[in-house]
Amino acid sequence: MLEKSDLADNAVECLHNEQYDRPYNLQNLNYRNLLFSGGRERESLGGEWRFTLDLHDTGLRQKWFLLQQRDAETRRDPYDYDPFAGQTIPVPSCWQMIKDKWFYFEGSAWYTREIDYIERDEDERVFLRVGAANYDCKVFLNHRFIGNHYGGSTPFCAELTPQLQPGNNILMLCVNNNRTTDRLPLRNNDWFNYGGIYREIDLIRTPASYIRDLFVYLVPDGGYNRIAVRIAVEGPATEVNFTLTELGISQSLPVVEGVAEATFCVQPVLWSPEQPKLYQVMASLGRDWVSDRVGFRQIEVVGTDIRLNGRSLYLRGVNCHEDDLLLGKMASEADIRRRFRDAKALNCNYLRLAHYPHHEMAARIADEVGLLLWEEIPNYWAIDFNNPATQRDAHNQLMELIMRDRNRASVIIWSVGNENADTDERLHFMTTLVKAARQADPSRLISAACLVNHAKMKIEDRLADHLDIIGLNEYYGWYEENFEDLIALGENSSPTKPVVITETGAEGVLGEHAPQSGPFSEHYMAEVYRKQTAYLPKLGYVRGFTPWLLYDYRSERRQNPYQQGFNCKGLIAADKHTRKAAFYILRDFYQQLKQAESLSD
Ligand code: GCU
């Protein structure tokens, strides 16, 4: 065992110290050091990494990150793992999808690879950027702990410069996907707990002074003629340049306490799903420069109406998880484009990307193809709202999501939660998040998927007073089997702001073993859609409909003979090809809404 090795001071630590992981939980890799990456060169670290699962955290106990590279024959001591030899795993990936024996593994896993570093510029700074790792990712470079990140679906950066050496460097990541009770999501949810480095991992180089963030948006004042720019810089800087050539903007802006801000009076072509116009923007600071493609639009609420660029908008939507039969939670461009094609085939103009930040490509592609998005942090079900650790995690994930996607015109709603019980603790926790979101981004609406107040049979939730849109999950015809209660709910409720049905639906199973009638039959699912789409348009305050969901997807909790580990409420089966009867009911319903809209224009 390593305990007898020349790391002998490690002996007690290895076997007797159950606080072994405390030194590696700084959560110092967070939104504060997230680097704007638009337009930057990314040196990919994707490919085969050496890999092992580590169920007992032996790696942290024995400090595998201290192990030096040696030939097996020359090692003097017994050792339990060799980071420089053995099996590998493709990065990015979900380890569950690589080997059957890894499918249900929850715990730590170690990733190791060499980096051959060649300095390009004397003062350059080098950052590691991880698109996402689920859930806790600890970073070690050349045997030194750099920091860790909490959050399974948002990007983070780690500066490597101080530890980086010319030539060969050893980079090790320890990723842990254990479910716990002190963060988002909690240990209990309704999607599969994939693990690993499942989005892109890159190196990014910058000069000593660089642009840390770029935020460009249309000032939501109803004039549609003012663009706001906010540029944050790191390192000594007196001015930064901003250009938007197509609108004749090229301006040097003074930097005050690390920030440059300006507003420009222009007449942009407004972005909309029908006309997804994007503009090339660029910011430069000395040798550093970043760019982005930004659409300018205004989304607002007026009474119970939602308006895009001043026009009344009904959100014809569908929910979608990040889940794939072959890829798990890893998203590909092809997978995202297929998802959007299927949504458009339903006549959707929007999707709710449930229940966590999806791959950053999703919003970029939605910007291009003209779809609106609801994006959400996994503040899901019974969160420990009183726990400061949970509050810190929620705030960080929300800030990382907003900083990542706030230049995306397609994103119109930030959601701070899903189906959380209406308690005092939850109200304080969620209103704190709402305030943080509004402060970080004045150009979007804030919502959450709330529950029906069954006691009063009303759409009523104290959080609604702090939201722009009331998201409502109602399953009349499925979980609430008496569909007529939806009518009572509708008649009892008089919300003063728009309601978007953020979930409804039913399971519908296909195939030779599927029931032909009753719950879990395709027919029963279709009937629920028929009733929901027949009634909801009668409620003037309902300004959006988002059935649950586009595709069947993996969920460990779903184990009845029909489900076999899948939630089968998809309008399309898990093959992402076979459409169910309800697909056509929803498609035709949305077609009618579209036609009614065009007639009213
Ligand atoms: C809930 C929840 C979803 C879940 C769905 C279901 O509303 O928000 O995450 O999958 O219902 O029960 O299928």
UniProtKB/TrEMBL annotation:
EC number of the protein: 3.2.1.31
Keywords tagged on the record: Glycosidase, Hydrolase
Top-level enzyme category: hydrolase
Start and end residues of each Glycoside hydrolase family 2 catalytic domain: 300-594
GO biological process, one term: carbohydrate metabolic process
Domain Glycosyl hydrolases family 2 sugar binding: 43-207
Domain Glycoside hydrolase family 2 immunoglobulin-like beta-sandwich: 265-297
Domain of life: Bacteria
Gene Ontology MF annotations: beta-glucuronidase activity; carbohydrate binding
Keyword Cell inner membrane: no
Family, similarity comment: Belongs to the glycosyl hydrolase 2 family.
Protein name: Beta-glucuronidase
